[in-house]
Every structure is written in structure tokens, then in C-alpha cells.
Inverse folding.
């Protein structure tokens, strides 16, 4: 799947788009008067299976503004012979903006999944990427234990690798993540990466004060990056709690930097 976004007469539009295979792109829509275009990626097959390999390429031209999301959660089913993989290549021009806000990634029993996102961006561009990882549920309400999830983000600014974010979750027995010491007894993980020249230590402090009460006692960390940018990691027992936490952070940035109201994608 590929998508090229440019800005024409005050609004961002697709000047090129292509999809083949399982992934599809829905028609564009505009959530407000800012000119930001929203595209939704869907998988009519309903899930990723063993051996599936997906490539998503997105280019946002100078001054263009894209919100890219999914229609529903990305589900990874059993992958007995070969893991499922998704590769994303993102390019942001001068003054471009990309908000990548997919629904949660749900890994079911015996699932193995690898995701690599490579970003090349101009120093004046703005990037916001969110991710929530949750284990699937069985019919009797018990957690399914997936085999492995690997998430790797490589962000280069003006051709220099600036942010390398590499996450591996490999469960043991019992709890889906009981062998990952950094997750302790928690089963759900939320992540937010922001790369933008306007990020500073004061913003990190403000976000921490805003988000800490929303995680119901779960661990929360916010790190200032050299981008400049920031990284948020939060652990929880609840997908809804992490969705609320990340949405609060995204809404604060949208309001402060662009004067936009809280995001409502109206999917359900």
C-alpha cells in the first residue's frame, strides 16, 4: 500500500495512492477546518496470519498534513510456521505533519509478529506515532499467550538516525508477559513517540502531570529525546485505560500546536 499526500489550496489531498492484496485505503475525510486529511487503512481479511508480509509507504510533502489510522484493531492470529510482518516507510517534507494513530495491536495465542517503521523527516516536520499492545482473550475470558512481538522504530532527521526505539516482548508461561521483567504483572503496553522541534523539558513535565493520574497506578515513563522529541511508555491491565491516556497526550498537542479540538474518529 502506498499513499502520497500534498497540499493544494489550503487542504491536504492524496496525489497518488495504491493498494494491492489484503490492505485497502478508505476514501479521505476531513475532521475539522484545519485542512488536515484523514485516511483509514482496513484489512478486509480481518487479521494477520503466519507468513503474511505487509508494506505500507507514506509520503507527506512539504506543508501537507495527514492523520493515518485504522478501521479496527490489528489482530495477529496463530503463526505456526512463520511470523507475520509489517514494514512501514514514512517520509515527511519541510513543515509536514503526520499523526499515525492506529487502533490497538492484539496478539492471540501462539502469535509471532514483527513490525518495523522507518521514518525520514525534515527537521521542521512533526511526527506523532501511537501504539497499544494487548493480548487476545479466549472465549472463557482467560488471556491467550502470544509467542513474541517485536516493534522497531527508526527515525532519521535530515538523513541522520536520531531515534532508535526497539521493543521486544517474549512471554513465558502463565501471564502473557511474566518473563518480561520490565512489565512485571502488567499485560498491556502503550507507547507514544513525538518528534517535533517544539518539544522541550517543560512539555514533558506537563504531560507527566496530565497522564499520571489516568493510568490507575500503572507505571508511566516519559523521556526527552534528542530529536527534539519525547517518548511515552505506559503499562496497564486495560486497553481502554491506555487508549484514554494516549488520547489525552495527543489532544494536548493538537490543541496547543494547531488549535484543534479533541480527536474523535467516530469509528464505532
Amino acid at each position: 500500500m502506498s499513499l502520497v499526500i500534498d497540499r493544494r489550496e489550503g487542504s491536504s489531498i492524496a496525489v497518488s495512492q495504491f493498494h494491492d492484496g489484503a490492505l485497502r485505503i478508505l476514501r479521505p475525510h476531513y475532521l475539522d477546518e484545519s485542512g488536515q486529511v484523514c485516511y483509514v487503512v482496513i484489512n478486509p481479511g480481518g487479521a494477520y496470519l503466519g507468513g503474511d508480509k505487509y508494506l505500507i509507504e507514506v509520503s507527506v510533502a512539504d506543508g501537507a498534513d495527514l492523520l493515518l489510522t485504522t478501521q479496527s484493531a490489528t489482530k495477529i492470529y496463530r503463526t505456526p510456521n512463520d511470523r507475520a510482518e509489517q514494514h512501514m516507510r514514512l517520509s515527511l517534507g519541510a513543515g509536514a505533519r503526520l499523526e499515525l494513530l492506529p487502533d490497538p495491536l492484539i496478539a492471540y495465542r501462539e502469535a509471532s509478529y514483527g513490525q518495523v517503521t522507518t521514518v525520514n523527516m525534515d527537521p521542521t516536520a512533526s511526527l506523532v506515532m501511537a501504539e497499544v499492545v494487548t493480548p487476545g482473550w479466549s472465549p472463557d475470558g482467560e488471556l491467550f499467550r502470544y509467542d513474541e512481538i517485536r516493534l522497531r522504530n527508526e527515525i532519521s532527521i535530515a538523513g541522520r538516525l536520531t531515534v532508535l526505539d526497539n521493543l521486544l516482548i517474549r512471554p513465558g508461561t502463565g501471564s502473557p508477559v511474566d518473563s518480561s521483567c520490565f512489565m512485571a504483572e502488567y499485560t498491556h503496553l502503550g507507547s507514544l513517540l513525538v518528534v517535533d522541534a517544539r518539544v522541550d523539558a517543560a512539555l514533558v513535565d506537563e504531560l507527566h502531570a496530565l497522564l499520571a493520574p489516568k493510568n490507575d497506578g500503572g507505571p508511566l515513563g516519559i523521556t526527552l529525546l534528542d530529536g527534539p522529541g519525547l517518548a511515552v511508555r505506559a503499562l496497564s491491565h486495560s486497553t481502554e485505560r491506555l487508549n484514554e491516556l494516549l488520547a489525552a497526550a495527543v489532544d494536548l498537542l493538537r490543541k496547543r500546536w494547531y488549535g484543534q479540538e479533541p480527536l474523535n474518529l467516530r469509528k464505532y
In short: The CA atoms of residues 166 and 235 lie 16 Å apart.
